[in-house]
Design goal:
By secondary structure, the protein is mainly α. Among the domains are: 93 residues, Serine Threonine Protein Phosphatase 5, Tetratricopeptide repeat (Alpha Horseshoe), CATH 1.25.40; 35 residues, no CATH class. The protein has 14 helices and 4 strands.
Length: 245
């Protein structure tokens, strides 16, 4: 305990040096004081800490760390400029705890949307693109699991595909029995025709639905989804689907 007490009495600048020398993820958890000191460390210190974790660090490596706020991301790139090749993968950590957010708080300014917008600005500043289908469509799938509609719309607008992993986001929506959510994933919003003011143009579906997906809906007893697939999308039912109707 005496050793811990002496450690907590050190100036924060020395504590930062100790952290960067040890590169220990356990050190901030030693006591509340150290946790608070490192939590409030300048972005440059946190960026150096992450940089030293890898022999050849990339932005995709760095983004795995929760301490990588947008300010730290910019410091990371300032200290270690990134090559203008390859896409930036959205880290899984941004989408793991979406279920914990109350439905009433899931709006366009709720986690992780502000971070995604800031990351998009950063990516553009270094002439990089973001891979919205990273990890086999994990971001969109997690958003569908959580029913985070603003996040779903944002990801879809950026190119996230419901086709990922054998249409897994759509399968999740079907398992939920949520026709509106299935439609949201399949049908893009109509766009305006610049040559005909006031006229909206219906865009092609993001994915072609199959009898196998219809069969999944029938097993879920989501017959409104089955009916919509048949009447609106022209999907032909399998024999097993017909037996469940």
């Amino acid at each position: 305990m005496a050793e811990n007490a002496r450690l907590t009495e050190l100036p924060v600048e020395i504590l930062y040096e100790i952290l960067l020398y040890s590169l220990s993820s356990k050190l901030p958890l030693t006591c509340r004081h150290l946790y608070q000191v490192f939590k409030e460390a300048p972005p440059s210190i946190l960026a150096i800490y992450v940089l030293h974790q890898y022999p050849r660090p990339t932005i995709n490596d760095a983004l795995k760390y929760p301490i990588m706020t947008i300010e730290v991301v910019h410091q990371f790139n300032r200290l270690h400029p990134q090559q203008k090749t390859g896409r930036i993968a959205l880290p899984k950590r941004l989408f793991r705890d979406l279920d914990h957010l109350p439905p009433s708080q899931r709006d366009r300014n709720s986690h992780p949307l502000p971070y995604l917008r800031d990351l998009s600005v950063f990516a553009a500043s270094i002439s990089r693109e973001i891979e919205y289908n990273s990890f086999d469509g994990y971001p969109l799938t997690r958003a569908v699991f959580a029913n985070h509609l603003p996040l779903i719309d944002h990801l879809l607008s950026k190119g996230a595909s419901p086709k990922a992993k054998n249409c897994f986001p759509i399968r999740v929506a079907i398992q939920k029995g949520d026709l509106a959510l299935v439609k949201r994933l399949v049908e893009p919003p109509d766009s305006r025709d610049p040559s005909r003011p006031g006229k909206r143009v219906k865009l092609a579906d993001r994915v072609t639905l199959t009898s196998e997906l219809m069969d999944l809906a029938s097993k879920r007893r989501a017959f409104d989804i089955v009916e919509w697939m048949f009447e609106e999308k022209g999907v032909l039912p399998r024999a097993g689907t017909l037996r469940r109707l």
